[in-house]
Predict the structure of 2-polyprenyl-3-methyl-5-hydroxy-6-metoxy-1,4-benzoquinol methylase.
Amino acid sequence: MLELSRQEQARRRYQAQRPGWRPAGDVLNALLEPLLLPYVRALDAGCGRWGVLGRFQERVGLAVGVDADFPSLRENRILPLRAQARLEALPFPAWTFDLVLCTWVIEHLPEPQLAFREIARVLKPGGRLLLLTPNARHPLIALGRAIPSRWRRPLVRRLYGRAPQDIFPTFYRANTPGALRRLLRAAGLQEIAWFEIEDPTYLAFHPLLFALAALYERLTAWRPLRGWRLHLVGLFARPLVDPPSPE
């Protein structure tokens, strides 16, 4: 099993090899930091048992979590304000939130376009959506999708130690750089920042696997291959003035 401490050690080794590299979580936190303000009303869209917002709820005016999975919400002891709902039908009025966080969720959405429209609806003008999701183009993700579901769950449990209740169906219907950015634009959101981030440490089970993964990630430094990196991080905004509807 790849323990978190072992993966963190692999990240430090890779960072020493690639000065300036930051894992996706660090990039996300750097984008999030200036958005954590006392007046901000924030939504963790797909908060599950943990989410991201719970770590920062004391720094915003309002922190709310939403998730479709009731057992996950019931066991979430971090966010006091939680609601059960699908992201495709959020139970909030328009213009409610200044910030929506969506981490490790988009790959699980059966109807991502509807979810993005709902997120845009509940964002105030000028509000931000900050997201992190895997890239379906990456060979590791493509291999995982090719494995039959009856084998995939036991394999994930064995390799990464993930509890059965934390393994959910995946669809990857918006999980390429082009598709994700296109769908977010169609929902009326403007791109502020975009990153395609390498990370070979998910194969740090064995030195040879890690070396091969690191070699692949170095190849993605070539611009035409950057869209094949493992993680996608994006910051998007609802415009201050919505564009006119087409006649």
Summary: The longest strand covers residues 123-134.
